[in-house]
Fold this sequence. Notes:
The chain has 2 domains: about 5-95, DNA polymerase, domain 1, CATH 1.10.150.130; about 120-295, Intergrase catalytic core (hpI Integrase, Chain A), CATH 1.10.443.10. It is built from 13 helices and 3 strands; from the N terminus they run αααααααβββαααααα. The protein has helices spanning about 5-15, 20-40, 55-65, 75-95, 120-130, 135-150, 155-160, 190-200, 225-240, 250-260, 265-275, 280, 285-300, and strands at about 165, 170-175, 180-185. It has a 3-stranded antiparallel β-sheet. The N and C termini lie far apart (about 60 Å).
Amino acid sequence: MNWDILIRQFKNYLQLERSLSPNSVEAYIHDIVKLRQFLEKNNINVSPQKVELSHIQNFLEDVNEAKNDEKLAPHSQARLLSGIKSFFKFLLMEDVISIDPSALIDAPKLGRKLPDTLSYNEIEALLTAIDLSNPEGMRNRAMLETLYSSGLRVSELVELRISNVFAEIGFLKVLGKGNKERLVPIGKEALKYVRIYVDEVRVHIAIQKGFENYVFLNRRGKNLSRVMVFTIIKNLATNIGLKKSVSPHTFRHSFATHLLEGGADLRAVQEMLGHESITTTEIYTHLDRDYLKQIITDYHPRS
């Protein structure tokens, strides 16, 4: 595939799955176009699949030299490199490339950005806004209850199998990153809606061959796509006038944050989220501290 096709697909990914603002999307695309133009200017006629580490390093050096021998500020470097890295991670995820040429380039250390979360009331508002009078509504309720109850990634949700729902013990077996399996608990409320969907709604769908074991199906009897889950959640947020940028990952962030706010052990949350390193999970402790500081600000008489 050529640059134009892959850049267009990358733009769709940023808009639908990453939920980036129009300005951010354009900035990312601008970075990729600049890389392409640099390669063309230097007579390096390669497709995105053939870009090498040295090409990217030379591009970054060229951008710095264009700043009158003054290095880009760390935030500017990070933003530029973020666009490049995101593009090649997308190509890797879509199996367009097998090796990410940008993987060995370190970004400047800028500190971590805390993830967006929803309050419990906002979660409730989204769930109760679902119209349960139609089959899709019951499926969506079961789906979002599962996201919030178990902290699944969207890829884990759409790949969830009926044979991996152990209702009698209240656990799901999910296939996470790196094809690693893990057991995660599922709450009674989520399990109730999954049972209703599977026993009373899903049985009336003409399921296509090969999709009999998937829990969540579309109207055509196939498993849902990630994009469809994003769209369902975005439409719900719009319907209730929620101003936050909401995605399936927002439910995962909220799951972890609410557990830690309630006093859950960090390593238990790490296990449930399927994080290989606890440092990934520790970002939620920063969020928890912000929450506690806000409590002081709101309620302490001398704050």
